[in-house]
Amino acid sequence: MSEQETIEQSDEPITGERIADDLRTLGISAGDTLLVHSSLSALGWVSGGAPAVVDALRSVVTDDGTLVLPTHTGLSDPESWQNPPVPDDWKETIRATMSPYRPEITPTRGMGAIPETFRSYPDVVRSRHPHHSFAAWGTDAESIVADHEYDFGLGESSPLADVYDRDGTVLLLGAGYDSNTSLHLAEHRGDYEKENDTDGAPVLKDGEREWIQLTGLALSDDDFEQVGEAFETERPEAVTRGRVGSADAVAMRQRELVDFASEWFSENR
After folding, report:
1. Is residue 184 within 8 Å of residue 261, measured between CB atoms?
2. CA atoms of 224 and 243, how far apart (whole Å)
């Protein structure tokens, strides 16, 4: 959606103060561990743009809590690229020359303006995974992003599992369940027939660029909306729906979501 279209669909400017008030009404409060998936355009025309949203989230959670956002990148083996694909005779050059992942500067890809802005704040820390990094701010930020293993980067040694252990909250801020990365943790925990994928990415080791191989679960979000609908129907006490700005927003207990979804995948996949 263009900025002009966003303006035309907004009755008034959405301020950071209003976003913060709406978040509190939704049940978000100081001290929460909050994992956020977001769409800036869904909020309406925000005065101050993405920084205003980040500032509002921080003001509500406060530094007694922890704010976590996915900051995934486009660094991967071009062999698997589909959106868009590249010519076969480019791939070796890309592998040899792609800039290495550096948490401080590598941009996000396909995550939206809010995570891209959040990861650039000077007091935000980011995990080391070249594909599936997460950025965090607040009291537990360092420990949540630490020790993010390269293999199975959305599984048991990921920030997702750390948020689970802390009984965190997932906030879908104008985003759908197809963006809900916690369901990938549930995929790892579900009991169904699975396959693994291999991929690669450039990282820095001892200051030198190195292309590494990564193993991960073959992931699919094709049924995530179906899982979300079932979760809200069967676990209504774990979910709060409301509006933040012009966006539909959903807050949910991550632990209950992951436990429910892992059983759902076991029964339905």
Report:
1. no
2. 21
Question: Do 32 and 167 contact (CB within 8 A), yes or no?
Answer: no
Chain segment 241-260, per-residue pLDDT in tens: 999 999 999 999 999 999 99
Using DSSP, state whether 24 is helix, strand or coil. Answer: helix
CA–CA distance, 28 with 220 (Å, rounded to integer):
29
Secondary-structure percent of the chain, ordered helix, strand, coil, rounded to 5: 40, 20, 40
Tokens of 216: 């991960």
Token pair listed for 23:
């978040």
The pTM assigned to this predicted structure is: 0.95
Alpha carbons 144 and 165: distance in angstroms, whole number: 10
Strands 33-38, 66-70: pairing is: parallel
Q: What 3 state SS string does 206-265 have? A: CCEEEEEEEEEECCCCCCHHHHHHHHHHHCHHHEEEEEECCEEEEEEEHHHHHHHHHHHH
> Which three-class secondary structure state does DSSP give residue 92?
helix
pLDDT in tens, 87-124: 999 999 999 999 999 999 999 999 999 999 999 999 99
d(CA 132, CA 124): 16
DSSP codes joined into one string, 29-65:
-TT-EEEEEE-TGGG-SBTTHHHHHHHHHHHHH-TTS
